[in-house]
Amino acid sequence: MSDFRNIVILTGAGISAESGLETFRASDGLWAQHRIEDICTPEALARNRPLVLDFYDQRRAALDTVQPNAAHEALARLDREWQGGLLIVTQNVDDLHERAGAKRLLHMHGELMSSLCEGCGGRAPFGGAMLDGTQCGACGGADLLRPDIVFFGEMPYEMDRIERELRRADLFVSIGTSGAVYPAAGFVQSARHYGARTIELNLEPSGGSHFFHESRLGPASRLVPEWVEEMLAS
Ligand code: APR
Question: N or C: which end of the chain has fewer CB within 10 A?
Answer without folding.
Answer: C
